[in-house]
Design a protein that fits this description.
The protein is mainly alpha-helical. The chain has one domain (about 5-20, about 35-185). Helices cover about 75% and strands about 0% of the residues. The chain has 6 helices and no strands. The chain has helices spanning about 5-20, 35-70, 75-95, 100-135, 135-150, 165-185. The two termini are about 30 Å apart.
């Protein structure tokens, strides 16, 4: 069974792949030609959806564990949650834009390095300290909780929602259901 670090690492690699593609020079021809605006929009939607689910699950389970198990857990989690809140604000704005809008590329050029920095912070600063504190069974259980939370997590960023684990566990499924209805009506997240 994968543990929390395996699950989060897989999410990070998927997000990094999307960042690489979205960060590419759209004016340069690839073997298939430049990326079409509608393709960029769909990929940005997928990035937003996957990031929203990932961050919601982390805020419900991962950051509370960091706060509880590490001596400087509050400081570490506060820094990460601040990064995630800024990311949610950027993704919420990005989600409303067309790739033809100048702000679309501006937001991506700010978001991409910030997202990479956040991933580096988690994997390089937080994970090593937490790996020492968790048993293999605890890491697996945390991974199971995060995987389950992602299945019922919101698919849109909600930057105004406080990152309170109890609030997210209580309201998250209802918010996620509303997000999924909006997604279906708009054709958002479809391939």
């Amino acid at each position: 069974m994968p543990d929390v670090f395996d699950i989060l690492r897989a999410d990070h690699r998927e997000i990094e792949q999307m960042l690489t593609v979205l960060g590419g020079d759209t004016t340069q021809a690839s073997p298939d030609g430049p990326m079409r605006p509608e393709t960029r929009k769909k990929l940005a939607e997928k990035l937003t959806i996957e990031s929203a689910k990932h961050e919601a699950a982390e805020e419900e389970y991962f950051w509370p564990t960091v706060r509880d198990r590490l001596p400087d857990g509050d400081r570490l989690a506060d820094h990460a949650v601040d990064q995630e809140t800024a990311a949610k604000q950027a993704l919420a704005r990005l989600d409303r834009l067309s790739p033809d809008d100048a702000e679309f590329d501006e937001l991506l050029s700010e978001y991409i390095p910030a997202a990479r920095e956040h991933i580096s912070y988690e994997e390089g600063t937080v994970w090593p300290a937490l790996q020492v504190q968790l048993t293999a069974a605890e890491a697996e259980e945390l991974g199971k909780n995060i995987a389950s939370a992602k299945k019922i997590a919101p698919t849109r960023p909600h930057p105004r929602t406080p990152p309170d684990p109890n609030l997210l566990k209580a309201a998250g499924p209802a918010v996620a259901a509303a997000d999924k209805v909006r997604d279906a009506l708009a054709g958002r997240g479809e391939n």
